[in-house]
Amino acid sequence: MKIxxxxxxxxxxxxxxxxxxxNRIDGGIGLMLDRPNVVFEASNHAxxxxxxxHKYYKESIEVINEKASKVFKTFNIxxxxxxxxxxxxxxxxxxxxxxxxxxLAIATAIMKLKQIDDxxxxxxxxxxxxxxxxxxxxxxxxxxxxxxDGGHEFGIGKEKETFLPSxxxxxxxxxxxxxxxxxxxxxxFVLVIPNVEKGAYGDEEVSIFQSHAPIPKNEVNEVxxxxxxxxxxxxxxxxxxxxxEGLKRIQSIGFKRIEIDLQHEIVKxxxxxxxxxxxxxxxxxxxxxxxxxxTESDEEANALLKEVQKxxxxxGGHIYICKPxxxxxxxxxxxxx
Length: 337
Prior knowledge:
CATH topology: Ribosomal Protein S5, domain 2
Helix content: 25-40%
Order of helices and strands: EEEEEHEHHHEEEEHHHHHEEHEE
Distance between the termini: 9 Å
Radius of gyration: 20 Å
Number of domains: 1
Strand content: 15-25%
Number of strands: 14
């Protein structure tokens, strides 16, 4: 038997609290899109252990081996007959959560092939050392949609004792889901990945958290208020204007303002361009450089895409028109070749 897992793509719109005065930190909002994807195939009837990847994804072989080995060791599974193939991937460190999606695809595939059905996605996320700051990616892998997470307990002896990103918070449990809801199906997302230096990660990302946290309490409160009174009602009422007013406001305050300030000028130009074009909702994902504009039809999205293509023609990049993903990763069982 062979299994194919096609993941959604994660857009992380904002952290909520990098102050911690309530003894919780992190928290965030985000949503899942239908593309770009991770497409991962696995079988356990091979003659020997093997990992394959398209030539563009060769650097991911080490990650696949590392994550799979952790699953094999934890569940006392022999790797002898497993064959893994990464059919499609999208860039890491551009703000789209590809490593979480790949890690969960690997772990889920092994669990399904070994018919181990009593392990939750949350437990697999913990095993894969993901979700230590954001809870959007792991919950989105499971169920898609728009997600609000409540972060982690904060303080001496708590889940997190310092302000650190997921990459340096591997001991923390995956962030707590507070709310999830389907994204309006007619919304279309113009996702732009400019061809600039990748977003902060590793030691640089740790340094940014250490340098800029804690965020002022009043800004944390304003972000929370916009989420509660604008962004969530906008999703519930299918009101893109209400949603967008809140989303645009939180791009200019709190930790998201710092993330945007650190970006290449083309990223800021694109966000300003969205504003000049009266786009109803837009934002930057995670540490960038990926940005997204939200429209209400294919026609609007296609027209905006053409204009953005002109804007980035000098620097280049990738642009996608995406649909909502409201179901999470797609799992298919295939016949062995």
